[in-house]
Amino acid sequence: MLIVFNKPFNVLCQFTDKEGRRTLADFISVPRVRPAGRLDYDSEGLLLLTDDGALQTRIAEPKHKLPKTYWAQIEGVPGTEALEKLRRGVHLSDGRTRPAQVRLIPEPELWPRDPPIRMRRNIPTTWIELSLTEGRNRQVRRMTAAVGFPTLRLVRVAVGPYRLVGLAPGEWREADAALLQFRHDLETKRGGGGDRRTRRKIPAGRGGSRRSGRARSTRRPPR
Q1: pLDDT digits (tens, 9 = 90+) for 177-189
Q2: Element holding 82 (H helix, E strand)
Q3: Of 40, 42, 114, 195, which one is the catalytic site residue?
Q4: Rounded distance between C-alpha atoms, residue 31 and residue 71, angstroms
Q5: Residue 17 falls in the annotated catalytic set
Q6: Which end of the chain is less congested by CB atoms within 10 angstroms, N or C?
Q7: What does pTM read for this prediction?
Q8: How many separate domains does the chain show?
Q9: Lowest mean pLDDT among 1-15, 52-66, 67-81
């Protein structure tokens, strides 16, 4: 089984928490599924979960180089030089990042974040799309900060062939795990290949899934 979940802001990427913060258990009650990879507490968007250990490894392990695509709202307006640094790879405390696909995008149609981001007066913000093939701790935020443009909001919109389209925050649907193997076989025949660019519009609602669910939480959200 493979689940595509739209993780809300300030939700832990695990099923339990001793401090009473919101977790995946507040939204998903399917037994035996576990996250395939991680998404930071203060990040939003696509998270895959599965009950298949081999599939979990295929998705999460950086050695498989499965592209993960993010939309980042950053402070300021990056020029060509900053974008090129992100594409070539930047030096972080744990080494140089792999080359990435990076481009400017118009402001996407997303759900409002709760709470909203804090913006400084008279300082514009910009949206960029980044596709990475590795998964270091808080990597996107560290990369944009390294070139002088802090990330204010971060939404993951794709993992390999899987997209966030049609899911509001806290909603999930079951996906076809065979797509991942099909993509791998196709790229093997072609000698490698990139992921298609993600659409910039994500409707905030259910979208034709075979199964979707949204559990009601009895916990109070963190203050």
Answers
A1: 888 765 555 454 5
A2: helix 80-88
A3: 40
A4: 31
A5: no
A6: C
A7: 0.82
A8: 1
A9: 52-66
